[in-house]
Amino acid sequence: ARTLLFRCDVADDAGVREMLKAVEAEFGGLNGLVNNAGTTTNVRPKDFDAMTAEEWDRVFAVNVRGLFQVTRAAVPMLRASGGSIVNTASIVGLRPGPQPLPYAASKAAVVSLTKLLALNLAPEIRVNAVAPGWMEGDWMMRMLGDRYEDLMARRAKATPLRRNVTADDVAEVIVNLLTSNRMVTGEIVVVDGGYAATT
């Protein structure tokens, strides 16, 4: 399968239309869409005074509005192909955690939006989401700083499968949801080695 990768910090309608035109010109249509948007803030969850409306809106613009705008623009091509959508949520969109408030709330919005889109785009388009847990890599390194190695090792030890999630683990589930599971829609697949299910 060929892919075309676009990256936008905040999607605007003109940029989205341009992106979808490039997809149609390159591939002649669209079979699958992965909305893999995610940004956060450095404002701590309990620091309400530091959390401005502008900062809150910035996170939601990327994590929720961008997802909606790209999906809306892609719907005609996905309907024509009987395609599928997979959104990237997060475990903190399903259960409370020590994440910045706008990030956690925006990922909860992605969970809800996934279910709403599954209802409203059926039967032509399936819509699901993945909700990764603690994932190895740059994001968690930035979030945990000097505590990264220690905290990741502790989390792996407390996880039934005894390791943390990798990007490959998440990609495997995304590809599976896009290309298989023809009777699965509106689902949020947790990818965390069983941690959330057992704690």
Quick structural overview:
The chain is α/β, with parallel strands linked by helices and 199 residues long. It is 50% helix and 10% strand. Helix 2 links the parallel strand 1 and strand 2.
Describe, in plain words, how this protein is organized in 3D.
There is one protein chain. This protein is an alpha/beta fold. The chain is 50% helix and 10% strand. It contains 7 helices and 4 strands, in the order αβαβαβαααβα. It has a 4-stranded parallel sheet with strand order 1-2-3-4, with helices on both faces. Strand 1, helix 2 and strand 2 form a beta-alpha-beta unit. Helix 1 packs parallel to helix 2. The radius of gyration is 17 Å and the shape is globular. The model has no long low-confidence stretch (mean pLDDT 92).
SS class:
alpha/beta
The parts where pLDDT drops under 50 for at least 5 residues are: none
Please give the radius of gyration in angstroms: 17 Å
Strand share of the residues?
5-15%
Inertia-based shape: globular
Number of helical runs? Answer: 7
Distance between the termini: 38 Å
In total, how many beta strands? 4
Helix content: 40-55%
Mean pLDDT: 92
Order of helices and strands: HEHEHEHHHEH
Oligomer: single chain
Sequence of strands across the biggest β-sheet:
1-2-3-4
Main sheet: strands, sense, barrel: 4 strands, parallel
Question: What attributes does this structure have?
Answer:
7 helices, alpha/beta, 10% strand, 199 residues
Secondary-structure map:
Elements: H1 13-27, E1 32-35, H2 53-81, E2 84-88, H3 101-121, E3 126-132, H4 138-144, H5 148-158, H6 167-179, E4 188-191, H7 195-198
Parallel strand pairs: 1-2, 2-3, 3-4
